[in-house]
Amino acid sequence: MLMYELLKSRDFRIWLAIMGSATLIIGASYAMVQQSTRLAANDLPLSTAQLVKKQLEGGANPSDVVPTQTVNLRDDSGVFIIVADSSRHVLAGSAALDGQTPLPPKGTFDYTAKHGLDSFTWQPTSKVRLATQVVNYGQSPNTGFVITGQSLAPAEDRVDVYTELAVAAWLAILAWTYLTLLMPESTFARKKTKK
């Protein structure tokens, strides 16, 4: 009943239309920025994987294409490279997690063997999320996989900031439209009387 009474008010309907439009616009903008930020995290691992694949197929040894500096997956946001053979044995790698060189689940290798590339978010352990690429290289019987990736922490930190900004913008529109459209005129009248 209260909603019906509110909907009879022209100002309330205008406020509802503005807030509905603002919610859709802010929500769509947030989704686009969030997705763009996440997808951009794939760019460097993908270009690195393609470069390493080209080098390996040109005759380079796995140890020659993998950096000597180790990337600690818990703390570092640098790009890591792992080269594995067709049986998923590590030939060389710059990634370390608790003293080991981790590998993604077997299913990612099966998918890559069929499709040539797999792009996914890998969480090898709690609080470690990685934008990861797996590409295959070589020709049978000398084939293998290149795994590259980097921490999603910087991208996720940016998304947290975008979330705060989106919520702040929505609340600001909510407050402003309430003040200009819905605040009772008697409130302003009382303030003028007090002066």
Q: Would you tell me the structural class of the helices and strands?
A: alpha+beta
Described by the principal axes of the CA atoms, the overall outline is elongated
Low-pLDDT parts are none
Radius of gyration: 27 Å
The SSE string, one letter per element, is: HHHHEEEEHEEEHH
Mean pLDDT, rounded to whole units? 90
Biggest sheet: strand arrangement? 3-2-7-6-5
**Proportion of residues in extended strands:** 15-25%
The number of strands is 7
What is the distance, rounded to the nearest whole angstrom, between the alpha carbons of the first and last residues? 38 Å
Which architecture name of the domain at 41-152 does CATH use?
A: 2-Layer Sandwich
The largest sheet is:
5 strands, antiparallel
3D architecture notes:
The protein is α+β, with helices and mostly antiparallel strands. The chain has a domain at 41-152: Beta-Lactamase. The protein has seven helices and seven strands; from the N terminus they run ααααββββαβββαα. It has helices spanning 2-7, 10-40, 43-57, 62-65, 106-115, 153-182, 185-194, and strands at 71-72, 80-85, 90-93, 95-96, 117-125, 128-139, 142-151. It has a five-stranded antiparallel sheet, with helices on both faces. Strands 1-4 form a two-stranded parallel ribbon. A hairpin with a 2-residue loop joins β5 (117-125) and β6 (128-139). α2 runs antiparallel to α6.
